[in-house]
Amino acid sequence: MHQPEADPVTRAEIRADLTRSGLNLIGQALSIFDADLRLALSNRQYQAMFDLPDALTRPGTSFDDTIRYLVLRGEYGTQDDPEAAVAFRVAQARTFQPHYFERERADGRWVAVEGAPLSQGGWVTVYTDITDIKRQEALLRARSDALSQQVLLNAERLAAANRKLAATNAALSEAQRILTRTEARTRQVTEMVPAHIAHMDAQYRYTFSNRRLPVIFPGAAGDIVGLTLEQALGAATARTLRPYMERALAGDPQVFEITHPTSGRRIRIALTPDRDGQGVYILSTDVSAEVQSREALAHAARRNLAARLTSGMAHDFGNLLTIILGLQGRLAARDLPPEAAEDVQATLAAARRGAALLDRLARITGARDPALEPVDLPALLADLATLSRPSLAEGTRLDLAVALPPGQLLLDPGALQDSLLNLVLNANAAITPPGRITLKARRNGDWLELTVGDTGPGFTPEALSRATEPFFTTKKGQGSGLGLSMVYDQTKMVGGTLRLSNGPRGAQVVLRLPWRPVARRMVLLVEDDDLIRAQVRDQLTGLGHAVIEAASLTEARALTDLPGLGLILSDIQLGDGLGPDLADAVPSGPVPLILMTSLPQGHPLRARAPGPVLTKPFTQGRLAAVLATALAPPKDPA
């Protein structure tokens, strides 16, 4: 008997399964609420991102109930009137206005929220976790001493452009005109995602596409349903993809990256076999910005290693060139035949050229000044933990124990983060999972004490005595032996100490750094050169100080009676007098006086300085260190 209803129902069920499977492949969280503010559709990532109970992910769930649950749980921070907060957000939702914004969640993670109204009422929302992007930008900025400013700016601009691209719904208005069926609504959701989502059958023919292929593969057609792989992407790209497709069709999931031959974009492709064995789901994303940032960090690490290696080589070659120059100089002083004298002079010229090159190399690879700046240490350690945990072995956990008084500290954040990351990864390599790494921070007298401990086997006696030597390693054939040496150098550079020991359960490394709390003061800056004064003013304000400027000794004397004046920073030589004369100029009593000059060491005017003298030019880190010493409270004689 003919049954006209059976085939359409079967097709609808297959299509619905296909849609649900496709949505669950999307990395973002998705939700659709209808005109009555009741949940129509969501994916697994929506429940996982907000840790929602099953009852709030079923179709028909009230938007009011979902918002009330999130408000009471603290998703939007502390609320004086929770019900008012719920009513405000429900009222906003009823306006059905398109919106895009980024917010920091209560747990410190960042989420981008993009919503668009539906033509028949209600709206669709895509939530994207952008925490790693935010932290990657911060990490790059912290390592700016090793990367060029232009690379940093380009990386950040590219990351920002990608986020804006995710918020651009070029096909939104076209999709809204056809949202008359559930299938059209689902297509609208997938087309908002900054990735290409597709399904391909066993004959390598596209059966579904969210029309985002041209966004990922520039130059490709937008409507590819019914086309083969070769027709949609071209023969060259298809040849690259075919082996992965074959393995995915055989049931083996694939994740890989390719470079698009025409645009040069780096594209990550995930292939997931469908459960019915009738094809494969495809998720393609543009990861060019991520790769650029990753390569920038790797380049910074390689550059640091190259600097250390070339510095040592420069020292040895410098000794050889000194010998060569001495011998050739002696030969040049003798009465030589013309041809021999010409050869000696050529050798001398080449050796002098080599010495000049080594001098330039020494300036490039020489030790840098510490870049001290005000740092929120608990936040820095939390970011470090977030950065480190994905690299830990399965079953190994990293615990933080931070017991610090409130307030910022003057630290070199880039160097400190590099050092602690090195110690955490070293501990991870030493542990046999499951294990535990503990990072503790506390004040110990005049020191900031940072301890990294693990539950591994501990240091060997040889490692305890040699671990900070360059190129010493216990990772046979794997480690460079520069990790702990770098940590030692960076710690010593800021006046700290490093101690290795074996604790009760494993290895323990203790970093002790000078305790330099940020003491914000009103500073009287006295400098008669306008450009230098502007530069030093920017350094002082960058350290959080308030600045009053004077261009002469007379002008400075007129300002010394200002209430709250906490420090004077003056040039030694001024147009109408000398900076040391300001030592006793404050009517309310002496305040710290720091002098600055470009005069050489040993000059008589430097000897008149009653306190520390900064040699021009100086870095902000050097200025911060001198200010911290001058503003530190006197130690108890006991």
TrEMBL record:
Enzyme Commission no: 2.7.13.3
UniProt-listed PROSITE patterns: HIS_KIN, RESPONSE_REGULATORY
Catalysis: reaction(s): ATP + protein L-histidine = ADP + protein N-phospho-L-histidine
Domain Histidine kinase: 312-517
Keyword entries, A-Z: Coiled coil, Phosphoprotein
Biological process per Gene Ontology, one example term: phosphorelay signal transduction system
SUPFAM superfamilies registered for this protein in UniProt: ATPase domain of HSP90 chaperone/DNA topoisomerase II/histidine kinase (SSF55874), CheY-like (SSF52172), PYP-like sensor domain (PAS domain) (SSF55785)
4-aspartylphosphate found at: 571
Coiled-coil ranges from the UniProt annotation: 158-185
Pfam annotation, one family: PAS_7
Residue ranges of domain Response regulatory in the record: 522-631
MF (Gene Ontology): protein histidine kinase activity
Top-level taxon of origin: Bacteria
Database matches in InterPro entries: CheY-like_superfamily (IPR011006), HATPase_C_sf (IPR036890), HATPase_dom (IPR003594), His_kinase_dom (IPR005467), PAS-like_dom_sf (IPR035965), PAS_4 (IPR013656), Sig_transdc_His_kin-like_C (IPR004358), Sig_transdc_resp-reg_receiver (IPR001789)
Alphabetical list of PANTHER family matching this protein: SENSOR HISTIDINE KINASE, TWO-COMPONENT SENSOR PPRA
Designated name of the protein: histidine kinase
